[in-house]
Write a structure and sequence with these properties.
The protein is an alpha+beta fold. It has four helices and five strands. The model has no long low-confidence stretch (mean pLDDT 92).
């Protein structure tokens, strides 16, 4: 098992099928252009866990800072391949990301999860994450 940042275009392309299971409306072309653009403009990083040379899980992360809590790392995307869940990939990826956050001086690890993703919520709670806020949005389109 290996966990590392996804750095080059070919590696990003290898991750698309897995990300598409989490973000089915995201086209391959949009994914391939968004990841490097978001990295350059917003500090987004894609992290992959591979086993036997096959991507098993992904996390899209970025570091931010809020006045009331300080520096934090947000997981924007977290997915483990269907058929590979409950094999420790999600836990290993989450722990790797938490370690990276600590090394970057973050005080908190955060993620936003859709209200209907109850299986994911159970996983986060098992990993000692707490439900601490409601997330609101307004569609501006």
């Amino acid at each position: 098992m290996e966990i590392a940042f996804v750095e080059d275009a070919a590696a990003i392309a290898r991750c698309y099928p897995l990300m598409a299971t989490l973000r089915p409306r995201l086209s391959r072309e949009d994914f391939l252009s968004a990841v490097p653009r978001m990295a350059a403009e917003q500090g987004y990083r894609l992290v992959c866990i591979e086993d036997e040379g096959v991507p098993r899980g992904l996390a899209g992360i970025r570091i931010g800072e809020w006045l009331h809590t300080g520096r934090y790392l947000e997981i924007e995307d977290l997915v483990v391949a269907e058929g590979q869940r409950s094999k420790g990939y999600g836990r290993a990826l989450l722990h790797w990301v938490a370690g990276h956050a600590r090394r970057q001086g973050c005080r908190q690890l955060r993620l936003v999860s859709g209200v209907k993703r109850t299986d994911a919520h159970r996983f986060y709670e098992r990993e000692a994450m707490i439900f601490e806020a409601k997330y609101f949005s307004l569609d501006l389109a």
